[in-house]
Amino acid sequence: MYKLNEQEIQSSMTLIDPAWILKGKFIHREVVLKNFIEAFSFMTSVALVAEKQGHHPNWKNVYNKVNIALNTHDADGLTTKDFDLAKAIDKILKN
Question: Residue 65: how many CA atoms within 13 Å on its side-chain side?
Fold first, then answer.
């Protein structure tokens, strides 16, 4: 898996929800849900998809908020794996 260049990153950003923000070598998103149970359920859904993809998020949960940061550690930056997981997360949130 190779690290995306700036042009590839900018192009990939247009394919995910605008709530994702590029910060350095990561894409970030904060998700605010109704309560802790919904936040935990969301995280469980993401965990199942992430495990299937073999790509796991950096995240933090406080009550109803889930902060997600994606990057590919092996590539020391962003790869298509990050954007594929971001798209999957977007899909979970739409359902």
Answer: 5
Region of residue 77 (left: phi > 0; alpha: psi -120 to 50; beta: else): left
Structure tokens at 78: 């962003």
- SS3 percent helix, strand, coil of the chain, rounded to 5, is 45, 25, 30
Alpha helices (H) in 1-95, listed in sequence order: 6-13, 36-53, 80-94
Sign of CA dihedral 27, 87, 80, 53: positive
pLDDT in tens, 47-63: 999 999 999 999 999 99
pTM: 0.95
Cβ–Cβ under 8 Å, residues 59 and 69: yes
